[in-house]
């Protein structure tokens, strides 16, 4: 008994630990960028920012980043190439942000992200963002500084809670780019004055970037239409008498109803009913007629939302999930319809009701 | 028979639950989605009805031959020669199911926890552990299964967390029943592997002494609990994943958990696999137990059989893990084995016992 | 002992020959005192072993009455409570060894034995190893009789029985098996008695020595009987239907059969409000889990699955181990090893020095080891937590076992990560399920599940076995 246990243990100890790996041998990667190469459109330029720990002596340690790039036709080869230049193993388990250049995104993001899904190591809750111009430009901001992605990530989180962009991660994006009945949107970043900035939303058709964007104000409206609010959602409505000045309404509650009908001749009408409860938060001109202010808000929001819908239909992007509605309510018709061409012809009607329920501490 | 070995109602209930839980649950949504899309959960329901019918058959057998183990009653009903043949077929059948479970488990551990550790080492640990438990015979085994019920708590917690943390798409469930009754029933075959394990009840005879109606109620309650749990899990997966993605993912339940992230812990999927290892190994232990039981009743010869069978499973696992063909062969045989061993034999025996008017003579 | 020939030997009617016989049996030891006394005109000899008898008693109750007695019969003359007569040398020798005084008379073939043992009494004080906050503060001592008295004082049921055994060919140690006949499960009692009847020992000095021979599974790391120095604890187990083994000469009393969970229950649970008691029980059980798994978990996570850690934590651990040259398993083993050494050193030393050792060892070495870059500070935190958690067990036996199992799971974690820990935990649970303490399942009431005993298991439910006029 004892002998056999001893044998067993020594067998295990001697043959070694196959998967054991020292944490200090791992190069933790914070962020990744993918771009179309400038020289050859068939190549992808990839960049990673890896954690670089340096001892200052006396027990104090400095945490810095290191930027590495490579150009290869596929993601796998990029990783392989970067590995050669870096001591230790590349570790993408904590890569919490992925930047994709807009030109590359137009060719489809599925092949870029696929490897993160397939492997056991990909980090599902990480964020992906489209960058106007080159993604590497954002990744290389303050190259020597402490982990960059912290900063961008915080910006994205703040934008999420302000309902500028939807709450997304690789997992939810994956479930939308693989679904022909609904499309995703990704945050659009821009480099201004050496700082990353959320510029709005990039519209997608399946996994391909359509090249059309929504600005931040339109993004909030789209998210209201999707009933996908963050912590705070504000809309700014111009006064009827003085369109230069605007008052601010914060959204407190939202009721959304999407009703899609397919008629006998396969024409699709979709009605989106929204009931918005708001709080008047800033009223610089001191308007006091809440009723008319609400009516003005309804008018303005409907108009702006119609613009948004027009952009969506033009871009052939369906983040509202009208296709999903058709497919689940009319499965037979859905099989018949060519959604690719039909989506443009869907008649989307908006019915927005705004209530101003609170006015803060002042009347 | 020692008095302390008798099982109580609660013990039997928890035992059946533990026996049915296991490896199957993790990939169940994927297997069903491939066949019946949004109606996967109905297939689970159908499967559990089938199981319920089987349980009634088992119960009738137990009732007709109180205090008898399965390997004894085959001989009582069909005579010593035929009975022994059936027992040997049963042995082979259980061994095949057990080996298949083992192969899948080792694969899962390789995929999720230890990518480079060789199969022989993982399988060795599992099989040694299984033999250590099974050698102790039924009473200790039942105790162990009951203790394992603790692992149900994290499952419930995770389900609740997933409900609130991941965006759900209830429209994915529609149209209900759109796949047609026939294909739903056909697909329920795929769910059977996940609910397997209740065969352990055939051998429960010598360890129960309670009113027959109570026994049936306990069986049914346990089966209903498992059905409910599986339906919730499957429905949750359908709502979380888009259909295309769900068809690609091998273990959707783990992927769903993988997308969760908390301030204090990331990658809860790994911790979940860690916890779930115990019900998964329990499935292997069950087959090792009932395989050995169907050859030998109790005592020294039983222990030798357990050790031998363990070695056989181990060798079979190692050989078939390295060849894809062997694995496919297993998958094909498995279906027939399940039908023969789990459903056909007990039904046939029951019918025979009624036809030949065989009953257990005074005990 | 003088075996062989003397066993069959009997006394003769020759006094001198008898005395020589006895001296021979004792190999002419010098502390065998022989004093001459005349009784009723006849010459007699009093024999006793110097260190074993109370000399005042010998003087007062034996020599003086014999000298002044007017009765003819020596038995009547003696004024001791226990006296008897024997004719064999063997009995005589063993009685002398247990503190009797022998009186031999010329012309008599039997010796009169009077029990006058010296009674060395130690004050009853609280045991050091099992401190409690509230509750009785008395403890068992070395004398079996005192220990029995402490129990008898608590349980006044007439069915509280005692059975005496003597073990050890060289030591002749008295062992008392005590139980309440109407409460104990007769099957269990039978099992214990069967075990005790089969015991043959060369010597018996500690209760553990006895336990190791009678327990069901010698290789199991888990103690299969609870050894306590607290009479209140022993009494409460007696009332629950357990038996108690008292070995003469040791304050540790064995309670059997026992369960795993008994080791995590303390008597103060019952002197506190039931909510408080339950809370502490849960804390103690969690501390067992921590002691067994925490360092292993750390090793598994750091060297196999660092992705489990959230970003902030991962970065801080990553920076803390950057310049540590050892793999985490070595770090952990090193620190555990240092800790065990410190503990061992502190136990043996008088308490003022032990405190110094604690400070030097704990604080100075701890900080220096981190600054020297030998061990990361996260590891110090982990090991410190583990050590404290292991000491939270009310019984030292379990504290040590939990640390030992911690080592095993550390090695498993080092080899197989989380998978290894899962395997080890399953093995421990299977072992606990399988283990039986004197025929009773060790992991009860969890395995086998006994819902009626759940009330006093992890939770301590309020006392309901009585009524009050209300």
From TrEMBL, chain A:
Superkingdom per UniProt: Bacteria
Keywords on record: Germination, Lipoprotein, Membrane, Palmitate, Signal
Gene3D superfamilies referenced in this protein's UniProt entry, alphabetically: Nutrient germinant receptor protein C, domain 3
Main location, first listed in the record: membrane
InterPro entries: GerAC_N (IPR057336), Spore_GerAC-like (IPR008844), Spore_GerAC-like_C (IPR046953), Spore_GerAC_C_sf (IPR038501)
Residue ranges of every copy of the Spore germination GerAC-like C-terminal domain listed in the record: 200-360
GO cellular component: membrane
Membrane topology value: Lipid-anchor
Keyword presence, Hydrolase: no
Residue ranges annotated for the Spore germination protein N-terminal domain, each copy included: 19-190
GO term, biological process aspect, one: spore germination
Subcellular location: Membrane
Family: Belongs to the GerABKC lipoprotein family.
NCBIfam families linked to this entry: spore_ger_x_C (TIGR02887)
Name used for this protein in its record: Ger(X)C family spore germination protein
Organism: Halobacillus litoralis
Lineage: Bacteria, Bacillati, Bacillota, Bacilli, Bacillales
Automatic annotation (TrEMBL), chain B:
Top-rank taxon, per record: Bacteria
Keyword flag Signal: no
Locations listed in the record: Membrane
Any one annotated GO CC term: membrane
Alphabetized UniProt keyword annotations: Germination, Membrane, Transmembrane, Transmembrane helix, Transport
Main location: membrane
Statement: the UniProt record of this protein carries the keyword Nucleotide-binding: no
Pfam families registered for this protein in UniProt: Spore_permease (PF03845)
GO terms (BP aspect): spore germination
Membrane topology: Multi-pass membrane protein
Family annotation (InterPro entries): Spore_GerAB
Spans traversing the lipid bilayer: 12-28, 40-61, 88-106, 112-134, 141-164, 184-208, 220-241, 270-290, 302-321, 333-356
PANTHER family per record: SPORE GERMINATION PROTEIN A2
Family (UniProt): Belongs to the amino acid-polyamine-organocation (APC) superfamily. Spore germination protein (SGP) (TC 2.A.3.9) family.
Name the UniProt record assigns to this protein: GerAB/ArcD/ProY family transporter
Organism: Halobacillus litoralis
Automatic annotation (TrEMBL), chain C:
Membrane-related topology note: Multi-pass membrane protein
The protein's name: Spore germination protein
One Pfam family cited in the UniProt record for this chain: GerA
InterPro entries: Spore_Ger (IPR004995), UPF0353/GerABKA_families (IPR050768)
PANTHER family: LEUCINE ZIPPER PROTEIN 4, SPORE GERMINATION PROTEIN
Major location (coarse): membrane
Cellular compartments per GO CC: plasma membrane
GO BP terms in the entry: spore germination
Location in or out of the cell: Cell membrane; Membrane
Stretches that traverse the bilayer: 282-304, 349-368, 374-392, 404-430
Keywords carried by this UniProt record: Membrane, Transmembrane, Transmembrane helix
Homology family: Belongs to the GerABKA family.
């Amino acid at each position: 008994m004892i002998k056999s246990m001893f044998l067993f243990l020594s067998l295990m100890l001697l043959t070694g630990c196959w998967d054991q790996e020292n944490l200090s041998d791992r190069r933790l990667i914070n962020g990744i960028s993918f771009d179309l190469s400038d020289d050859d459109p068939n190549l992808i330029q990839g960049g990673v920012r890896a954690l670089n720990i340096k001892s200052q002596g006396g027990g104090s340690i400095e945490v810095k980043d290191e930027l590495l790039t490579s150009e290869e036709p596929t993601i796998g080869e990029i990783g392989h190439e970067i590995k050669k230049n870096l001591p230790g193993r590349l570790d993408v388990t904590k890569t919490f942000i992925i930047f994709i250049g807009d030109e590359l995104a137009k060719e489809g993001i599925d092949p870029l992200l696929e490897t993160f899904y397939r492997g056991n190591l990909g980090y599902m809750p990480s964020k992906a963002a489209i960058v106007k111009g080159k993604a590497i430009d954002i990744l290389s901001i303050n190259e020597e500084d402490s982990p960059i992605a912290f900063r961008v990530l915080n910006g994205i989180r703040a934008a999420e809670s302000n309902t500028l962009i939807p709450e997304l991660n690789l997992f939810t994006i994956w479930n939308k780019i693989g679904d022909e009945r609904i499309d995703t949107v990704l945050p659009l970043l821009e480099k201004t004055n050496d700082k990353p900035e959320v510029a709005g939303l990039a519209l997608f058709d399946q996994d391909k970037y359509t090249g059309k964007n929504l600005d931040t104000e339109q993004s909030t409206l789209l998210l209201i239409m999707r009933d996908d609010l963050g912590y705070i959602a504000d809309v700014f409505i111009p006064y009827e008498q003085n369109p230069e000045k605007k008052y601010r309404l914060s959204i407190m509650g939202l009721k959304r109803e999407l009703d899609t009908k397919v008629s006998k001749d396969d024409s699709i009408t979709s009605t989106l009913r929204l009931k918005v409860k708001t709080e008047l938060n800033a009223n610089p001109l001191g308007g006091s007629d809440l009723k008319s202010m609400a009516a003005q808000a309804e008018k303005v929001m409907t108009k702006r939302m119609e613009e948004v819908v027009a952009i969506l239909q033009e871009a052939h992007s369906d983040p509202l999930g009208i296709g999903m509605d058709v497919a689940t309510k009319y499965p037979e018709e859905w099989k018949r319809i060519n959604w690719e061409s039909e989506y443009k012809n869907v008649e989307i009607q908006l019915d927005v009701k705004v209530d101003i329920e609170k006015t803060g501490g002042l009347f | 028979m020692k008095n302390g070995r008798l099982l109580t109602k609660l013990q039997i209930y928890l035992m059946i639950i533990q026996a049915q839980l296991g490896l199957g649950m993790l990939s169940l949504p994927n297997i069903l989605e491939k066949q019946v899309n949004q109606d996967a959960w109905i297939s689970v329901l159908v499967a559990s009805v089938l199981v319920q019918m089987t349980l009634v058959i088992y119960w009738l057998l137990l009732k007709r031959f109180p205090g008898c183990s399965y390997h004894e009653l085959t001989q009582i009903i069909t005579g010593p020669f035929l009975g022994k043949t059936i027992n040997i077929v049963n042995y082979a059948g259980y061994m095949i199911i057990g080996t298949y479970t083992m192969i899948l488990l080792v694969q899962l551990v390789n995929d999720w926890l230890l990518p480079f550790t060789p199969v022989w080492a993982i399988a060795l640990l599992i099989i040694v552990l299984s033999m250590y438990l099974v050698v102790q015979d039924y009473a200790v085994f039942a105790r162990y299964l009951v203790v394992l019920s603790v692992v149900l708590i994290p499952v419930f917690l995770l389900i609740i967390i997933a409900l609130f943390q991941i965006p759900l798409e209830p429209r994915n469930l529609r149209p209900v029943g759109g796949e047609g009754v026939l294909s739903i029933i056909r697909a329920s075959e795929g769910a059977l592997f996940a609910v397997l394990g209740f065969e352990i009840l055939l051998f429960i005879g010598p360890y129960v002494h309670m009113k027959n109606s109570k026994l049936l109620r306990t069986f049914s309650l346990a089966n209903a609990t498992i059905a409910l749990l599986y339906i919730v899990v499957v429905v949750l997966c359908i709502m979380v994943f888009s259909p295309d993605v769900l068809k690609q993912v091998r273990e959707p339940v783990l992927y769903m958990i993988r997308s969760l992230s908390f301030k204090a812990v990331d990658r809860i999927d790994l911790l979940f696999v860690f916890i779930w290892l115990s019900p998964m190994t329990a499935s292997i232990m069950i087959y090792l137990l009932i395989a050995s039981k169907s050859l030998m009743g109790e005592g020294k010869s039983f222990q030798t059989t357990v050790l031998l069978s363990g070695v056989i499973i181990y060798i079979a696992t190692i050989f078939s893990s390295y060849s894809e063909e062997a694995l496919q062969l297993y998958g094909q045989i498995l279906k027939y084995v399940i039908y023969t061993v789990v459903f056909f034999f007990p039904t046939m025996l029951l019918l025979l016992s009624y036809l030949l008017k065989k009953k257990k003579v005074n005990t | 002992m003088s075996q062989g020939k003397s066993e069959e030997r009997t006394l003769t009617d020759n006094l001198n020959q008898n005395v020589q016989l006895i001296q021979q049996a004792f190999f002419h030891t010098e502390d065998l005192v022989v004093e001459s006394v005349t009784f009723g005109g006849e010459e007699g000899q009093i024999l006793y072993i110097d260190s074993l008898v109370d000399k005042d008693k010998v003087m007062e109750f034996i020599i003086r009455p014999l000298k002044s007695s007017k009765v003819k019969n020596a038995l009547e003359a003696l004024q001791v409570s226990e006296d008897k007569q024997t004719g064999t040398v063997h009995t005589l020798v063993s009685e002398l060894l247990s503190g009797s005084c022998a009186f031999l008379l010329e012309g008599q073939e039997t010796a009169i034995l009077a029990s006058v043992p010296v009674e060395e009494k130690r004050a009853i004080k609280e045991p050091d190893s099992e401190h409690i906050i509230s509750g009785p503060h008395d403890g068992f001592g070395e004398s079996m009789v005192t220990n029995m008295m402490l129990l008898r004082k608590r349980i006044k049921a007439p069915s509280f029985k005692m059975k005496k055994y003597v073990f050890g060919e060289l030591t002749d140690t008295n062992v008392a098996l005590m139980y309440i006949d109407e409460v104990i499960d007769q099957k269990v009692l039978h099992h214990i008695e069967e075990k005790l009847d089969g015991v043959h020992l060369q010597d018996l000095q500690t209760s553990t020595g006895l336990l190791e021979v009678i327990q069901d599974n010698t290789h199991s790391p888990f103690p299969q009987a609870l050894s306590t120095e607290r009479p209140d604890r022993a009494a409460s187990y007696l009332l629950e239907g357990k038996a108690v083994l008292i070995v003469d000469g040791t304050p540790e009393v064995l309670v059997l059969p026992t369960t795993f969970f008994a080791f995590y229950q303390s008597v103060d649970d019952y002197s506190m409000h039931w909510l408080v008691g339950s809370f502490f029980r849960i804390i103690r059980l969690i501390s067992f889990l921590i002691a067994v798994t925490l360092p292993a978990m750390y090793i598994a996570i750091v060297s196999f699955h660092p992705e489990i850690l959230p970003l902030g934590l991962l970065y801080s651990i990553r920076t803390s181990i950057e310049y540590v040259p050892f793999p985490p398993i070595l770090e952990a083993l090193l620190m555990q090893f240092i800790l065990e050494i410190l503990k061992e050193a502190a136990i043996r030393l008088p308490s003022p020095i032990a405190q110094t050792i604690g400070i030097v060892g704990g604080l100075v070495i701890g900080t220096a080891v981190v600054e020297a870059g030998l061990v990361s500070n996260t590891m110090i935190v982990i090991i410190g937590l583990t050590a404290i958690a292991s000491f939270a067990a009310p019984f030292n036996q379990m504290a040590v076992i939990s640390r030992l199992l911690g080592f095993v799971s550390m090695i498993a974690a080092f080899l197989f990560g989380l998978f290894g820990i899962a395997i080890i935990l399953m093995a421990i649970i299977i072992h606990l399920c399988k283990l039986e303490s004197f025929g009773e399942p060790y992991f009860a009431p969890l395995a086998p599940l006994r819902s009626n005993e759940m009330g006093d298991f992890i939770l301590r439910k309020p006392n309901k076995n009585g009524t009050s006029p209300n």
